[in-house]
Design a protein that fits this description.
The chain is α+β, with helices and mostly antiparallel strands. It has five helices and six strands; from the N terminus they run βαβαβββααβα. It has helices at residues 15-21, 32-40, 111-116, 124-127, 138-149; strands spanning 3-8, 23-25, 46-51, 58-71, 95-110, 133-136.
Length: 151
């Protein structure tokens, strides 16, 4: 099993919305590395659900990949803000996975808490903060879970 971090702005799609929906397609990713990360995911992989672009960005919960990568339908929808006129159905550029709600973290883990933890120095979130879908090592996963149990 691999671990991931899924970033979203809560006004666009929140962890509470995922809890209500139970499962959602992770659409609209338009970064090559984030797309490649999704193509590397497998059913059963776990991810932190991370709220960005707020006063205190933080990991708030856990989600699970329930469907392997498949073409993101929004790239073909001319009404979508994620439409890509250069993508073709026979050769799509953009992919998505489906994720399901698992559980909230006991306490949200803020970006500041992660930055203050020296064992997380190499974490992708702290080096390439803008990447919307990113890998998390097993060690980092355990450290963040430990931070969520504190407070």
């Amino acid at each position: 099993m691999h671990h991931w971090l899924f970033k979203t702005e809560p006004h666009a799609y929140s962890f509470e919305q995922l809890r209500a929906d139970r499962i959602t397609p992770w659409t609209g990713v338009r970064n090559w590395q984030a797309r490649n990360n999704m193509k590397a995911m497998e059913v059963g992989d776990l991810g932190f659900f991370y709220h960005s672009s707020i006063a205190q960005p933080c990991a708030v919960g856990i989600c699970r990949v329930v469907k392997n990568a498949y073409p993101d339908f929004t790239q073909f929808d001319v009404q979508s803000e994620y439409y890509d006129a250069t993508s073709r159905k026979e050769r799509p550029k953009w992919y998505m996975v489906d994720v399901e709600y698992v559980e909230p973290l006991e306490h949200p883990v803020t970006l500041a808490q992660m930055r203050a933890e020296p064992r997380l120095d190499g974490m992708v979130l702290l080096r390439r903060g803008r990447l919307s879908v990113q890998p998390v090592t097993s060690r980092e996963w355990e450290i963040v879970l430990g931070l969520a149990q504190q407070q």
